[in-house]
Amino acid sequence: MRAPRADPGDRRHGPGRVILALYLIFVIGTVSRSAAQISTRWEQAPLAYALSALAASVYVVALVSLSLRGHRAWWVSVVALSVELVGVLVVGTWSLLAPEMFPDATVWSAFGRGYLFIPLVLPVAGLWWLLSDRGARAAR
Fold first, then answer.
1. What is the largest CA-CA distance in the chain?
2. How much of the chain, in percent, has pLDDT values that exceed 90?
3. Domain count, the chain
4. Rounded alpha-carbon distances, angstroms, from residue 42 to 35, 36, 55, 106, 139
5. What confidence tens digit (pLDDT) does each residue in 91-100 have?
6. CA–CA distance from 135 to each of 35, 45, 86, 91 (Å)?
7. pTM
8. Is residue 78 part of a domain?
9. Residue 78 to residue 65: CA distance in whole angstroms
10. What is the share, in percent, of the chain residues with pLDDT greater than 70?
11. Is there a domain that residue 93 lies in?
């Protein structure tokens, strides 16, 4: 007896499964880190900690939208990953040009150096997946 084949348009299979797993890890890490930073050391680096919370919320939206099927979820995913990529590029550049503004690191500081640059690569991989033929079929 053969196992049922995955729908080729389902983003939860193939490379999409790896991307979803990484987003889940980042949701857990960024939500817990930003909550701890904000609740214990807010006055030390409010900008950095607010950006950590923003990153966490973007990762949550990305994880949820990538997990869902349909046209609207696909568009939310594209927007969330685009916002994430812009955030990594802007905050990464800003943190290098004005390090005094970032006395504590965020997930996007220095382009995600503290996270092995995964925050820089992940939205690119996710957008590639969404815009590929297989990812686009899931938008239907």
1. 63
2. 77
3. 1
4. 10, 9, 16, 13, 40
5. 999 999 999 9
6. 33, 39, 21, 28
7. 0.86
8. yes
9. 9
10. 86
11. yes
Q: Does 64 map to a domain?
A: yes
CA-to-CA dists, residue 78 to 4, 62, 81, 106, 131, angstroms: 29, 8, 5, 23, 8
Residues 6+ apart with CB under 8 A from 82: 123, 127
The tokens of 21 are what? Answer: 């797993």
Structure tokens at 61: 């939206």
- 117 φ, ψ (degrees, to nearest 5): 65, 10
**Which residue range forms the structural domain that includes residue 80?**
15-137
Q: Which of 50, 47, 19, 16 minimizes the C-alpha distance to 33?
A: 50
Position with higher pLDDT, 69 vs 79: 79
- CA–CA separation, 68 vs 59, rounded Å? 14
Q: Could you give the residue ranges of the DSSP H alpha helices within 42-104?
A: 46-67, 71-97
